[in-house]
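INTERNAL AUDIT FORM
Audit reference: QA-55
Scope: verify that the stored structure record matches its stored sequence.
Auditor: D.O.
Record contents follow.
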Amino acid sequence: MTTRPVIAMFLCLMMALLACSKEETLPASTSVLRSQMEDSLIFDYVKRNNIDSVLRHPTALAYRIRRKGSNEMIKHTSVPTLIFTTRLLNGR
């Protein structure tokens, strides 16, 4: 009768270890396809909502500069301000 708790503990430990295992990384071709699909979705959203001047950074960030700042040089005491809005592809 004392083996049941040991077996139960062993099974729990194995389940915990398996749950913590790393996911396999996707092949590069799958990653490229996913990136292309995401780009397509983002730029379809941009077109559907008549959003102009959207740029894409090499890190896959899509952004739009609404108003450029002055060309004034910043000082070490300057505090930069960044105002941003994020949106999901469903508009929320």
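Auditor finding: record pair retrieved intact. Strands lie at 55-56, 62-63.
Action required: none
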